[in-house]
Amino acid sequence: MFGKTMRTRGLAAVVTVLALGLTACSGGGDETGGTGGQSAAPGSGPIKVGFSQLGAESGWRTANTESVKASLTAENGIDLTFVDAQQKQENQIKALRDFIDQGVDVIAFSPVVETGWDEVLQEIKDAEIPVVLVDRTVDTTVVDAYVTWIGADFEAEGTTAGEWVTVNYPDAKIFELQGTLGSGAQVDREAGFDTIVGQQNIVGKASGNFTRAEGKAAMEAALQAYPDMDLLFTHNDDMGLGAIEAMEAAGKKPGEDIQIVSVDGVRDGLQALVDKKFNYVVECNPVFGDQILDTIKKVYAGEQLPRETIVFDQAFDQTITQAEVDARAY
Ligand code: GZL
Questions:
Q1: Domain 154-284 maps to which CATH number in 3.40.50.620, 3.40.640.10, 3.40.50.2300, 3.40.50.1000?
Q2: Tens digits of residue pLDDT in 171-200
Q3: Residue among 109, 183, 236 whose CB has most ligand 1 atoms within 8 A, to mutate
Q4: Of 28, 96, 120, 125, which residue is the least packed, with the fewest Cβ within 10 Å?
Q5: CA distance 220 to 58
Q6: Model-level pTM?
Q7: CA–CA distance, 290 with 287 (Å, rounded to integer)
Q8: How far apart are CA 296 and CA 273, in angstroms?
Q9: What residue stretch is flagged as signal peptide (predicted)?
Q10: Domain(s) of CATH 3.40.50.2300: residues in the chain
Q11: Which residues line ligand 1 (CB under 6 A)?
């Protein structure tokens, strides 16, 4: 939370922040001048939102960005500044500092990795701009660095994938394609999966950075290094689709010679299920722009919010039909 003193809209007040609930508004806009620069009191115009998106690395991210932009619109009362960081933390930190200089009312961002944010999060806190964490998580020493986090339960996704493997392929020799190293999604999916399957069943790991090209390259090397692997757990569909290319180039049948368990559930990933090249996919729903909009409006209005909001996920196996895939929103 924002420490002991915050500005609520229209008046400065010393507010004791509750452990879980939080009222937070950006500074500025009240007669005491505030610190948020140009921000205005509720109802006097759009909410200025700075959104730092980590990149455009995967089908999941594309769908997430589309959902965010479809919800955070002028018609919905938002003046959005959206910045893509091309998966570089330094770009996100620059964007966050620019948002402070612009005097936005609310900052939303999906941190590419969990650590390295303390300095800029402290600067944002000092500027009294509330932060909504989207999707990825942070590991920071800054107390009350953000108002709330909205995203998926990455560890549960890993656990769900691991449980399917232990039930269906308990003796599998598993290779694990990890997402961006140090990202919350990578750390927690690995923790959830490995705990269930047991490290003794994992022959090797490598990062494909959540991209198709890097997933393909990592799998090409893994096929050489671990010729006895017979199951791939990939932290996202895009790396799994790249791995399929590598397997087929090596004369392996994906989904048969090497089972593939993936996370995300984007259309191309579910199509691979229909095509029998993926065997199991745990969804990580990227379409939650409306929930982000609702959260931002509540933050701006100074309403209390839960510390986190978990986005609902499900899982799919090869019984999924082409019609179901075609009907998917993303
Ligand atoms: C998960 C998200 C991950 C996806 C990847 O919520 O952060 O990042 O699983 C994406 O596809 O790159």
A1: 3.40.50.2300
A2: 999 999 999 999 999 999 999 999 999 999
A3: 236
A4: 125
A5: 20
A6: 0.87
A7: 8
A8: 36
A9: 1-26
A10: 4-152+286-313, 154-284
A11: 57-58, 60-61, 135-136, 151-152, 185, 210, 236, 238, 263-264, 284
